[in-house]
Design goal:
By secondary structure, this protein is mainly α. The protein has helices spanning about 10-25, 35-60, 65-80, 90-120. It has one domain.
């Protein structure tokens, strides 16, 4: 982790850029094109998975539950705003996909930390 400290600013920029892109795409009046239903779930889960991992790289000292709660609330906020757009709809399955992405991200972070501790 020490060799990554010099890239912390880059990870912070990447985290906020991916977060801003996800919020922008989630709050625009027209949803991004998805060929199949599972593509939309992949967008939700993949976006919050990437945000969770980048969040860890940018802010490694945060507690895991703060990181998870923050990312979960971002997903719920996007769905809440979508409920006000006439061309969008909020869906509980999207929140499930968001939560799945956050949980997978937290598990990957935990596995990385466990692997790093076991190497010492």
């Amino acid at each position: 982790m020490r060799q990554w400290v010099r890239f912390r600013t880059v990870f912070k920029i990447l985290f906020f850029a991916v977060l801003a892109l996800g919020i922008y795409l989630g709050m625009t009046p027209a949803p991004p094109a998805a060929l199949h239903v599972w593509n939309a779930y992949f967008y939700h889960a993949g976006g919050l998975l990437a945000c969770t991992v980048l969040n860890f790289l940018a802010f490694p000292r945060w507690y895991w539950w703060v990181r998870g709660l923050l990312m979960f609330l971002v997903g719920v906020a996007v769905e809440y705003v979508q409920s006000f757009h006439p061309t969008r709809s909020a869906d509980i399955t999207d929140i499930y996909a968001n939560t799945g992405g956050v949980v997978v991200g937290l598990v990957l972070i935990w596995l990385f930390q466990w692997w790093r501790r076991s190497r010492r």
